[in-house]
C-alpha cells in the first residue's frame, strides 16, 4: 500500500514539478533501506496529523455555520432575503461596471437613431399623402365619387319620395322586400 501512495506522490503535476519529483526520487533512491523506512514513517505521521487538522477544521466550520444560521434566524434574515440582497448587490455591481455603462450608452444611441429614422419615414409618408390629397388626380377622383354618390342618392329618393340618405334608402329597400339581414335570404 505504501508503494501505491508513493507512486501517487511522485506523479508530476507540471513540468517544474516533474523536475522536483525527479530530484526527490534521486535523493530517495540514494538513501539506505533503513533511512527510506524512517522517511516513510515520518511522512505517514505528518499525513495523519494533516488529515486530523483537516477534519478538525471541517468540524469547526460546520459548528460556525450552524451558529451563523441560528443568529440569522434570530435576526429575521431568511434565505430568501439573503438571495434577494445578493441579487440586488449583483445588479448594482453590473450597473456600476463600465461594460454595462458602455452597453447602455450604445443601446440609448441606437434607440435614438432608430426613432429618428422612423420619424423621418413617417414624416415622408405623411408628406406624400398630403401631396396626393392635394393633387389634381385625387380631386378628380373625389369629385367623381361624390357625384356618383349624389346620383345614387337622388335616384333612391325619387323612387321612394321620403328617403333623405343612401343608408336610409338601403334600410327601407330591405324592409320593403322582406329582407332584414343578409342571412335572411339564405333561410327562405
Automatic annotation (TrEMBL):
Residues 156-165, 172-188 have a biased composition (Polar residues). The lineage of its organism: Eukaryota, Metazoa, Ecdysozoa, Arthropoda, Hexapoda. It holds the Pfam family TPD52. The keyword Coiled coil applies. One of its GO terms (cellular component) is cytoplasm. Residues 156-188 are annotated as: Disordered. Keywords: Coiled coil. It comes from Drosophila pseudoobscura pseudoobscura. The keyword Coiled coil applies. This is Tumor protein D52 isoform X13. Residues 33-60 form a coiled coil. InterPro entries: TPD52 (IPR007327). The gene is LOC4804814. Belongs to the TPD52 family.
Amino acid at each position: 500500500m505504501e508503494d501505491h501512495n508513493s507512486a501517487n506522490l511522485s506523479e508530476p503535476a507540471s513540468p517544474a514539478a516533474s523536475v522536483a519529483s525527479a530530484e526527490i526520487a534521486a535523493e530517495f533512491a540514494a538513501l539506505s533501506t533503513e533511512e527510506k523506512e524512517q522517511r516513510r514513517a515520518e511522512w505517514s505521521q505528518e499525513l495523519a496529523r494533516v488529515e486530523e487538522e483537516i477534519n478538525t477544521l471541517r468540524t469547526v466550520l460546520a459548528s460556525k455555520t450552524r451558529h451563523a444560521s441560528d443568529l440569522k434566524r434570530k435576526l429575521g434574515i431568511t434565505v430568501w432575503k439573503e438571495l434577494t440582497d445578493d441579487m440586488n448587490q449583483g445588479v448594482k455591481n453590473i450597473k456600476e461596471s463600465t461594460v454595462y455603462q458602455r452597453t447602455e450608452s450604445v443601446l440609448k444611441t441606437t434607440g435614438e437613431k432608430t426613432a429618428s429614422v422612423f420619424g423621418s419615414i413617417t414624416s415622408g409618408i405623411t408628406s406624400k399623402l398630403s401631396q396626393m390629397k392635394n393633387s389634381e388626380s385625387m380631386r378628380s377622383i373625389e369629385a367623381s365619387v361624390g357625384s356618383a354618390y349624389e346620383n345614387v342618392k337622388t335616384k333612391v329618393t325619387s323612387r321612394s319620395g321620403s328617403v333623405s340618405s343612401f343608408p336610409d334608402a338601403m334600410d327601407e329597400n330591405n324592409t320593403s322586400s322582406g329582407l332584414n339581414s343578409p342571412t335572411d335570404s339564405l333561410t327562405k
